[in-house]
Write a structure and sequence with these properties.
alpha+beta, globular, two-stranded antiparallel ribbon, six-stranded mixed β-sheet, 3 domains
């Protein structure tokens, strides 16, 4: 078997000249990266040193094309990012405030990007060819390179298109013209991938199987352990004690321990508002161990015990530290770790801590649907606030008033939040949707769950949650009775209405028996039972009280009316309290 492998920078993989074309073979899956994966890659590109290694690219060279066997998700993301850069740069060149020097740089970048994205400018053929579903949208998107700005509105429902908009508007939206140029030239073009080339598909899959089955690679944690044991000259006992904090039975959670190491540094050692990256763990901690010697490991052990309460595996959807994990609020972990470790120093009561968590949770409920501020900005915000609290020596309610003001300043407005809710929430963020449904139920229903019927909203049956989210108007292909109910029998109109409204708050509830409801008619869903137990919409929970169960149908007007009711309750639940400021 002939295998060629060499590290290649992105500028070499996607040159401005030459016939290189990458093809995603038919047997591959469609593009599937989520926003959090894209943002993680973007943050690494921003924060790591130039020439950052982003992974492997395994290809088989057949019929003059580079068939992508492994690495297509990453490569597709980078191409979406490249096109988003073009879009943002193009807008910046027309800004009146831009200097002629920056404008000239961007114009050169625009010409450069166009030649990298297109393998054939005359026929407007992209250098990356995706699967049919993605390629249709990708082919339309690259028209941006030719000045096209009016993209089809109906593309907004496709995840592929949404990822492009997310990169352009959210990740790159705040960068100035000079920052866009620097990111493109210094960070993007120097990205390094290990390109592995094999002559045919059979060889490619042997290499792929080997890469993905031959054990686990060394992690930054392994290197840090080796450095601690060798350079500090210590026995492994203390390191084992630290590891045991993150060990359940025989299984050590290395991912959580790595997150702790990163968050500990940001919480106590970081001098700026930026964050420690995985690539800099060993070098940064080497300085700490050199300074504090073996004594630093004792600090890590005590802080790790507190950190486990924050980075929780609990299944509870509550206004508590466990609730933060459900909202992907990891950017707040360094701040909270510092507050909890220094709780006595900051003179914070248990009530203060509870209020702090509630503030942060209500903020993230809004943020997770509006998608601003960016997660990278959030980490800087919270790191900066932590430093200001330390420097100004705030105590007790001073800390709380300060945090209250800072959070309110960056919180999306009511109008922004309502606009996001109207676009649908379930498809935007299922975890946050579940969180608000459960909290609406717990906040406004004090009767259903009682001593005789304990609260089971967080309970599991086997590996599945007992209570699941139910769409009243069903997802998927609509049965004829639903087409009749929402569009008087017009299947095309029903499909359009379903797409627009199915994921809105007004169409969602909770049920302890989701699998039995599905595509049933509205009245069948109302009256559905599991044996003698009500599990349909007749189940008298708060969320079902706004469903008109006496009606023969549940149509778009019903969704709108119920949406208004639940939205008002939600806005009341997450309204700023101004308790301290």
């Amino acid at each position: 078997m002939k295998i060629d492998s060499e590290p290649r920078q992105f500028r070499e993989l996607f040159p401005i000249d030459g016939p290189i074309k990458y093809v995603v073979p038919d047997y591959q899956r469609n593009y599937s990266w989520k926003e959090e994966q894209i943002e993680a890659l973007f943050n690494d590109m921003i924060n790591e040193d130039d020439g950052y290694y982003v992974g492997n690219l395994l290809i088989s060279e057949e019929d003059g094309f580079e068939n992508i066997i492994d690495g297509q998700q990453r490569l597709t993301t980078l191409n979406l990012m490249l096109l988003a850069l073009f879009s943002r740069m193009n807008k910046e060149t027309r800004e009146q405030e831009i200097s002629r020097d920056v404008q000239f740089k961007l114009i050169q970048d625009l010409a450069d990007i166009k030649r990298r994205v297109l393998v054939d400018e005359e026929n407007f053929s992209p250098r990356l060819e995706l699967l049919k579903k993605d390629q249709e949208i990708w082919s339309k998107l690259v028209k941006i390179l030719d000045g096209e700005t009016n993209l089809p509105n109906n593309y907004g429902r496709f995840a592929f298109f949404k990822r492009f908009v997310y990169i352009a508007d959210t990740l790159l939206g705040d960068l100035s013209g000079q920052e866009l140029h620097d990111f493109y030239e210094k960070k993007f073009m120097s990205l390094t991938l290990l390109k592995i080339s094999v002559p045919d598909l059979n060889d490619a899959y042997q290499v792929f199987a080997s890469l993905n089955s031959k054990g686990l690679p060394l992690t930054p944690l392994d290197l840090l352990k080796n450095m601690y044991l060798s350079e500090i000259g210590s026995t492994p006992d203390k390191w084992m004690e630290l590891t045991e904090v993150f060990t359940d039975g025989d299984n050590s959670d290395k991912q959580k321990m790595t997150r702790f190491v990163l968050n500990n540094y940001d919480a106590f050692e970081q001098k700026s508002a930026s964050s420690l990256t995985k690539g800099k763990i060993v070098k940064s901690y080497q300085k700490l161990f050199d300074k504090y010697k073996s004594g630093y490991i004792d600090k890590l052990i005590e802080r790790a015990k507190i950190y486990k309460k924050i980075d929780s595996d609990s299944n509870e959807y509550k206004y508590s530290l466990s609730g933060l994990a459900k909202l992907n609020a990891t950017t707040t972990y360094p701040f909270l770790l510092n507050m909890l470790v220094n709780q006595e120093k900051y003179e914070l009561t248990k009530e203060n801590i509870d209020d702090m968590i509630k503030m942060i949770i209500n903020f993230f409920i809004r943020r997770n649907f509006v998608l601003t501020p960016k997660s990278s900005n959030l980490r800087s915000f919270f790191n900066g606030w932590r430093k200001e609290i330390e420097n100004k020596e705030y105590r007790g309610n001073q800390v709380m008033a300060f945090l209250e003001r800072k959070i309110e300043k960056v919180t999306p407005t009511d109008d922004e939040f309502i606009h996001a809710l109207n676009k649908g929430i379930y498809d935007q963020n299922k975890q946050t949707t579940r969180f608000i449904l459960i909290m609406l139920q717990r906040t406004f229903d004090k009767k259903f769950f009682n001593k005789a019927t304990p609260d089971s909203l967080d309970d599991f049956e086997g590996k599945k949650l007992r209570w699941t989210i139910e769409h009243i108007l069903p997802q998927g292909n609509l049965p004829q009775n639903w087409i009749n109910d929402i569009a008087d029998g017009n299947a095309l109109e029903a499909s359009d209405l379903q797409e627009k409204h199915v994921h809105r708050l007004g169409n969602l509830t909770l049920t302890p028996y989701n699998s039995g409801l599905g595509q049933r008619s509205f009245q069948e869903k109302v009256n559905y039972k599991d044996g003698e137990s009500e599990v349909g919409f007749n189940l008298n929970i708060f969320l079902n009280q706004s469903i008109d169960k006496g009606s023969s149908k549940f149509d778009i007007e019903s969704i709108e009316e119920r949406d208004q009711i639940l939205r008002n309750k939600l806005m009341y639940m997450i309204a700023p309290e101004h308790k301290y400021s």
